[in-house]
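Fold this complex.
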Amino acid sequence: GAVVSQHPSRVICKSGTSVKIECRSLDFQATTMFWYRQFPKQSLMLMATSNEGSKATYEQGVEKDKFLINHASLTLSTLTVTSAHPEDSSFYICSATPISTNEKLFFGSGTQLSVL
Amino acid sequence: GEDVEQSLFLSVREGDSSVINCTYTDSSSTYLYWYKQEPGAGLQLLTYIFSNMDMKQDQRLTVLLNKKDKHLSLRIADTQTGDSAIYFCAESIGYSSASKIIFGSGTRLSIRP
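Structure:
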């Protein structure tokens, strides 16, 4: 089946540094990828929709200058958390839908970000 | 607005059936999904149903959709300890691969011996 690879799976960083998370579709192309954030014991919250070759669409309340998204190819989207603070600590998950189908959404395994 | 609701916890005895319920508000949803999340892991798609269907069965999983009441359920037959996880209901709004997916809060399923 379709596979979405997310890297790194876990990252610990100091406050004020930037962290980049990669989301890669391994065996399919996706014009659109999604970035979610999950706080402990809560549901996934959609942060932004990443569109290949154009600007990402951010959900209300998500700072676009804080969470930089780049979708440079049909198989790769990156999320950069800039100047990270402890309140940015969370579980970040990406997902993608193959161009060939409008049905299934495949998820990466997530990235646990801890900001000290 | 778009909202998906689920109860937070469910406890069942091993071997019994589990039924996880979900309600949603947006009548324009196209696909409805059930995802499973094990601790520290990403989401795994369990099954999905198109909004013009009312039932879908896949091995131990049965999905029932009542579109009039905007109610979705997931039944897991013969529940096993490996089924312990958080189960998320989600709805897709729109027909393209860029459609938004709205998630419920998740139901934590625990299995009693």
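The mean pLDDT of chain B is 88.
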